[in-house]
Amino acid sequence: MTVLVTGGAGFIGSNFLFYYLEAHPSCRVVCLDSLTYAANLATLRPLLELERFRFVRGDIRSRETVFSLFEEERPELVVNFAAESHVDRSIASPELFTQTNVLGTVTLLEACRAFGVQRFHQVSTDEVYGELPPERPELLFTERSPLCPSSPYSSSKAGADLAVLAWARTYGLPVTLSRCSNNYGPYQFPEKLIPLMILRCLEGKTLPVYGTGLQIRDWLHVSDHCRALDLILEHGREGAVYNIGARSERSNLEVVRSICRQLDVPESRIEHVPDRKGHDRRYGIDASLLCRELGWQPETDFEEGLRQTVQWYLSQRAWWEPILSGAYRAENERLAACV
Ligand SMILES: NC(=O)c1ccc[n+]([C@@H]2O[C@H](COP(=O)([O-])OP(=O)(O)OC[C@H]3O[C@@H](n4cnc5c(N)ncnc54)[C@H](O)[C@@H]3O)[C@@H](O)[C@H]2O)c1
């Protein structure tokens, strides 16, 4: 069995590669990643030597790249993590997000159709549903909630979701789709809330929090996400959409305060900055379909997972220092030239 994983040099994709290669010792895994600023190929260094792993630098927007890789590798399973993923960047560069997230996904769908894969899985986000009112904590997103995205990022992910479902209906492509809440854990690029705050704490800097900081996110440890994806690939119903989340809602301010406590940093370092445009106030995910159908349960409690994540960043300076200095870009080039 050959599995194609796109975007595997990013945060969730790299965690998934480690998880999947260990859980499926007889599978061959090919990773396609164009190495944008969000990729750190050094994360995958331990895998680059493995015979049953191949890294290919390439862009999911390029039909030629994607089709020739499918021709060569004939993957049975395709899991699409490749995306532009940072909401702030989407507000600055909306076209790039549409090109990568929508058109890149369509290119993959077309290749899957042409080469007849057994399954295409699209990794999506709860952000496609838009926001929930914070004053109605009983309301949660279900798979039937309308898509109502707020940002260029979430609208591009929603566009990709709709294409995936349309390719299933029109062409009979065997697809599954998952919409997950905010992830945290090892190897997350330090532009996202949790690693950004940890590293700014360590550097003695201020801790910028958008607006009041009362925006609520539903946090899931990346290892729980990887396990859910593996279950969906193995046992998920063809054509189904599955929400993934741990019912672990916290405001951004609570998360930052927790990090301050763990690193013994005074909360006076928190600085409220002007709010993000179109900022969603609350996400909350109902993952009961996944629990019921596939027996998935989150295993990592948020406080414990956050403690482990803080410890991971404390012990893995060699991973994040090259990112902060920018040296990782040259290392990406060097490693990509060797594979
Ligand atoms: N991070 C989260 O909390 C979260 C939550 C739910 C869903 N998701 C989704 O999960 C997926 C992975 O998220 P992440 O946080 O790991 O993202 P990330 O930004 O850390 O990684 C994205 C990866 O995709 C690659 N990539 C980008 N454009 C590409 C292109 N055109 N061709 C090939 N590769 C390309 C990048 O080089 C990078 O390695 C995304 O689809 C995202 O929408 C993320």
Report on this model:
The strands form three sheets. This protein has a seven-stranded parallel beta sheet, with helices on both faces. A three-stranded mixed beta sheet has the order 7-9-11. It is globular, with a radius of gyration of 19 Å. It has helices at 11-23, 45-48, 63-73, 87-92, 94-115, 152-171, 193-202, 222-235, 252-263, 288-294, 302-315, 317-325, 328-338; strands spanning 2-6, 28-33, 53-57, 77-80, 119-125, 175-180, 182-184, 207-210, 216-221, 241-244, 249-251, 270-273. The model has no long low-confidence stretch (mean pLDDT 98). Helix 1 (11-23) crosses helix 8 and helix 9 (252-263) crosses helix 11. The protein has one domain: 3-Layer(aba) Sandwich (Rossmann fold). The chain has 339 residues and is an alpha/beta fold. The structure holds nicotinamide-adenine-dinucleotide. The site of nicotinamide-adenine-dinucleotide has 30 residues, from helix 1, helix 5, strand 5 and strand 7. Nicotinamide-adenine-dinucleotide binds at residues 6-7, 9-13, 33-36, 38-39, 59-61, 81-85, 100, 104, 123, 125, 157, 180, 182-183, 189.
Give the overall average pLDDT: 98
The gyration radius over C-alpha positions equals: 19 Å
User: What is the CATH superfamily label?
Assistant: NAD(P)-binding Rossmann-like Domain
CATH class reads: Alpha Beta
Q: Report the biggest beta sheet as strand number plus sense, adding barrel if it closes.
A: 7 strands, parallel
Structural class: alpha/beta
